[in-house]
Amino acid sequence: MAERAVVIKSQQEIESMRLAGKVNAKALEVVRELIRPGVTTAELDKAAEELIRSNGGTPAFKNYPGAYPYPATLTISINEELVHGIPGQRKLQSGDVVSIDCGTVLDGFVADSAFSAGVGKISAEAEKLLRVTEEALFVGISKMYKENRIGDVSAAIQEHVESHGYHVPREYTGHGVGRQMHEGPLVPNFGVKNRGLQLRPGITIALEPMVLVGTHRTRVLSDQWTVVSADGSLTAHFEHTVAVTESDPIILTACE
Ligand code: MG
Ligand code: MG
């Protein structure tokens, strides 16, 4: 796929994205509180959609073009499912690792964020995977300073993940976000320091480490959306929409 254009945002546009991000964060919080054994993924999806719409937003993922238009508000990916799992009648079970990804459009701007969490009691390996993946997100954000390059962000994420013996996928990446859910630049979870686009104030990125326990390889299920680890090993995913500024990066998909 050709790289999409990088769109520099004004401070006012970043503020609009922050408002979209707050609604998106609230939707994810509502879902987080519903996570327990026995809840269906469709129930989680419905709660997120209601929260977004009652705050004047629209779900960014619904009808997103693919093999067929994406049918839901959330992507919900369980265990070996890495990203893009479709909500339905499946019930969460104790021991599952569930990844919830949500996008909100508010006043023309998109916010995109994800988290993973354990359901009930989870294994020590699952706990470690969740910790390492969330840490990788914040390690990446800590490199999002002007004059650093995309490769600095990507390499930091890859180094953190691989230092724990885990893997990052090659086919799915972070991305610029703004009026469109997918803008330039692509921000892989692997890379080489000092390479790639130089960051500058006004660049807004959905940074999203995806981590697999056993392999970097993935495949897509017959529903043509759900991406799973090729070896069936456990996976996790954390994401924030972040703005590069003159000083510290700003997380636009935080609750506060
Ligand atoms: Mg996302
Ligand atoms: Mg994203």
Task: Summarize the helices and strands and which ones pair or pack.
Elements: H1 11-34, H2 41-54, E1 58-59, E2 74-78, E3 81-83, E4 97-106, E5 109-118, H3 124-141, H4 150-163, E6 174-176, E7 183-187, E8 204-207, E9 210-212, E10 218-220, E11 227-229, E12 235-237, E13 240-243, E14 250-251
Antiparallel strand pairs: 1-4, 2-4, 3-11, 4-5, 6-7, 6-8, 8-13, 9-12, 10-11, 13-14
Helix pairs in contact: 1-2, 3-4
* Net shape: globular
Number of strand segments: 14
> How many helix segments?
4
> Roughly what percent helix?
25-40%
Strand count, sense and barrel status of the largest sheet are: 5 strands, antiparallel
Q: Please name the CATH topology.
A: Creatine Amidinohydrolase
β-strand percent reads 15-25%
Instruction: Give the class-level CATH name.
Output: Alpha Beta
First-to-last CA distance: 36 Å
Q: Provide the spatial order of strands within the biggest beta sheet.
A: 7-6-8-13-14
**Rg from alpha-carbon coordinates:** 17 Å
Taking all residues together, what is the mean pLDDT? 97
How many domains is the backbone divided into? 1
CATH A-level architecture: Alpha-Beta Complex
Category from helices, strands and their pairing: alpha+beta
Helices and strands, in order, run as: HHEEEEEHHEEEEEEEEE
**CATH superfamily annotation:** Creatinase/methionine aminopeptidase superfamily
**Ligand species:** magnesium ion
Low-confidence stretches: none
